[in-house]
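**User:** My hope is that you can spare some time for a protein that puzzles me. I have put the entry right below:
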Amino acid sequence: MPTPEKVNRIKDLKEKLEKCSIAVATNYTGLPGDVMTELRQRMRTAGIEFVVVKNTLINLAAEEAQRPQVKDIVQGPTAIVFGYNEPVEVAKTLSDYIRTTRSTLAIRGAVMGAGPAMPPEQVAQLASLPPKPQLVANLLGQLQAPIQRLLGILNAPLGNLDALLQARIRQLELTQPSG
């Protein structure tokens, strides 16, 4: 029978899995304690939780949270990064930390919501995406371009008619005697 501490820990992990927009599994072996502290502080300032977990506890929490795909990314010594904001920002923050500090921290995979487990390569692709506001602006630009072209095509005959009438007015003004 599990101890009350373990039951509470499973409940806490279950809540984190249910609330998070992305959960990224990492291998933290080889990281000194001071580096782990700095990593946690950096993640916390970005609104991200970095939690070292026992595999059996996270697997039980994943079952209770109805996210069995989490088991696919948990092997060996594991720390889970729980992100509650945009998944792209979470992946980018973690990848940037690893790149800038040349950390031995390794991403094993991720789970977004109830979706399938993502391998490390897909997490890297996610981190390389532009931020959501930029993606929305790009999409709106793509949607607006055909409408602007159609508007230009529809306005062209009116513009041509106007130019023709203006030319005829000038022609009539030049041919009429003054005075």
